[in-house]
Amino acid sequence: MKKVITLLTILSLSFLFSCEKEESNVNPINEATPELIAKLNNLGFNTHDFQVVVYEGNIIVENDIVLTMDQLDKMSAVKAMPDQEHYATDYLVASLPRTINVYVSTSFSQNYFDATDAAISRYNAESLTLTFQRVTSSSSADISIVPSPWYYGFFGILGSAGFPTAAGDPHNEIMLTRSYYDGVTDLGALTTTIAHEMGHCIGFRHTDYMDRSFSCGGSTDDEGASDVGANHIAGTPTTPETGSWMLACSDGSDRPFTASDKTALDVLY
Fold first, then answer.
1. 3-state SS of the chain?
2. Please, how many CA atoms are within 13 Å of residue 112, restricted to the half-sphere of its CB?
3. Quick check: is 99 in a domain?
4. What predicted TM-score, i.e. pTM, was given to this entire model?
5. Are 67 and 40 in contact (CB under 8 A)?
């Protein structure tokens, strides 16, 4: 989930970069080539306001979404109608009903564990065919919540997750930037962040993916449907909705599921 970062905040994170400089020599970030930037622009991703980060075969776009090189190669510039609300990817979690095990790294403080439990409770309260539970071992996890690598903070990336696999499994990892979230004292806000990234893992796109200016401000940017899909969920509004847990940008507040969010969850699961 992306939250607008001030220049001062980004500059303050330069200390993190200097502390992790040795690690950067071991796991270098690759420069986004002009060809890659052109491809992302053609697909509707915003490469002007957000740094494109290429790292170990992954591309992080718009400070939130992790794509593989293979996904990018298969993408098409298909656009969805801009007056629709909730969206899902082509691939969803399969083999329902199903329990999804969520692991939280012990590197995190208690706040992260409490927020994850609260996010899990929000989903489970909807009586879906997906049930979430927190586990204490990463080996039994379907989704692991782990600290992000050093460069996330440097580039102002607060967190990321991917989408379900073609085999019907949830994306297996959520990364959160401790240099930012360690300072978040509002448990509801952290709960919303984790619930948002869990939403990506089970197949939800941003509700305002076709016009990020609704929650992010600035220019009107369409994230693009790409090969992962951006399918309108039946029964959800045809106008943007303030307060949805899947808005592209956060205002730092607690955003429990709205009535339309609950409809979207119920339709898919």
1. CECCCCHHHHHHCHHHHHHCHHHHHHCCCECCCHHHHHHHHHCCCCCCCCCCEEECCEEEECCCEEEEHHHHHHCCCCCCCCCCCCEECCCCCCCCCEEEEEEECCCCCHHHHHHHHHHHHHHHCCCCCEEEEEECCHHHCCEEEEECCHHHHHCCCCEEECCCCCCCCCCCEEEECHHHHCCCCCHHHHHHHHHHHHHHHCCECCCCCCCCHHHHCCCCCCCCCCCCCCEECCCCCCCCCCCCCCCCECCCCCCCCCHHHHHHHHHHC
2. 21
3. yes
4. 0.71
5. no
Answer whether residue 41 is part of any domain: no
Residue 163 near residue 191, CB atoms below 8 Å: no
- Closest by alpha carbon to 164, among 235, 105, 243, 100? 100
State the total domains in the chain: 1
Give the burial string for 239-267 (b: 16+ CB within 10 Å, else e). ebbebbbbbbbbeeeebebbebbebbbee
The verdict on residue 100 lying in a domain is yes
Mind listing the pLDDT tens digit for each residue in 30-51?
778 888 888 877 766 767 767 8
Q: Report the alpha-carbon distance of residue 85 to residue 243 in Å, rounded.
A: 12
Q: Is residue 43 part of a domain?
A: no
Question: Domain range for residue 116?
Answer: 7-28+76-268
In this model, does residue 190 exceed pLDDT 60? yes
> What's 182's domain CATH number?
3.40.390.10
**Helix 187-201 with 110-124: angle, nearest 10 deg:** 60
